[in-house]
Design brief:
317 residues; mainly alpha; 4 domains; 3-stranded antiparallel beta sheet; two-stranded parallel ribbon; 16 helices; 5 strands; 8% strand; elongated; Integrase catalytic subunit; Transposase_IS30-like; transposase activity; DNA recombination; Transposase-Integrase
């Protein structure tokens, strides 16, 4: 079996991926920007649990490559450490340590020294929950009784005046979703109120004040009175059910007999669900039944598509 080539993304592409993810775009939408499969995007996001990695930056106090090249040239012509320090406006001890940790006066190379300094800087501070197993145990016990990280952080602050036994809710979330920290077991994720493999705050998904609402809707109060008592057969209600693993199915219920029809849909977007449902409605209409009354108890893509003028009136509860 031929193995698929691995997909790589540049740093600028990864930055765009995280920008779009933070802006609330779905994984499939981000993948369309690069004309690639969404699984490659999923891999990048899942590596850190949907939490954007902190961008690495050099300290303004650290030596830069230009200064290291100046040191290398000065050593080649035999200049003293104090003379080099004076030219670079650095302390002689700084120049001395730089030379000694990178091969000495005879073997010092600017590029190698700069890369070595960048590599040595990768010494992340241990997570507070890793440093304090007792604190991690307290957090785990509260998670198991379905306390939210916000509740746990607030309880710790009130119960333990000692800062050593206090932790922010963000640290708890990061320890759960970034398993590389080794602080909290992955099994504790199932106790969160929102079962997600990756972290995504509500702030990121609320793009507008009308997010989650269907625009230009028709109120359920405007439904004809003849429909209310379910006495007349032929009136239908529609809804969209979303399941696990990105699966969804539409339902059509005849209000008089409670007869249910299931409609397979290709996606939960209003175009996919609306087109599939309207095809079923057309089949019903061709059987000399009244035009169905398709409403929804939730603002899903199905009711929005039907309401938006595809030929069947939609009413919302």
């Amino acid at each position: 079996m031929k193995q698929r080539p691995r997909i790589y993304y540049t740093e600028s592409q990864k930055a765009l991926i995280w920008d779009r993810w933070k802006a609330g775009d779905a994984v499939q939408q981000i993948a369309q920007l690069f004309d690639r499969n969404h699984s490659s995007i999923q891999g990048i996001l899942a590596e850190t649990g949907g939490i954007r990695p902190i961008e690495r930056r050099r300290s303004r106090l650290a030596l830069i490559l230009v200064e290291r090249e100046e040191i290398s040239r000065a050593l080649a012509v035999g200049q003293s450490i104090r003379h080099i320090a004076m030219r670079l406006e650095r302390a002689p001890s700084t120049i001395s340590r730089e030379i000694n940790r990178n091969g000495g006066c005879r073997s010092y190379r600017a590029n190698q020294a700069d890369q070595a300094a960048w590599d040595r800087a990768r010494r992340p501070k241990l997570c507070k929950l890793v440093q304090s197993p007792k604190l991690a145990q307290l957090v785990a016990e509260k998670l198991q009784i379905q306390w939210s990280p916000e509740q746990i952080a607030g309880w710790l602050k009130r119960t333990y005046p000692d800062v050593a036994y206090q932790v922010s809710h963000e640290t708890i979330y990061r320890s759960l979703f970034i398993q590389a920290r080794g602080a909290l077991k992955k099994e504790l994720l199932e106790y969160l109120r929102r079962s997600r493999a990756m972290r995504r705050s509500r702030h990121h998904t609320q793009k507008t004040g009308n997010h989650g609402r269907i625009s230009d809707t028709t109120s359920i109060s405007e439904r004809p009175a003849i429909v209310e008592d379910r006495a007349v057969p032929g009136h239908w209600e529609g809804d969209l059910l979303c399941g696990s693993k990105n699966s969804q199915i539409a339902t059509l219920v005849e209000r008089h007999s409670r007869y249910v029809m299931l409609v397979k849909v290709d996606g939960k977007g209003h175009r996919d669900s609306g087109e599939c449902t309207n095809r079923k409605c057309s089949a019903i209409a061709s059987g000399a039944l009244p035009i169905p009354d398709l409403g929804s108890r939730q603002g899903d893509g199905c009711s929005q598509a039907i309401h938006s003028g595809d030929g069947y009136p939609g009413l919302l509860l």
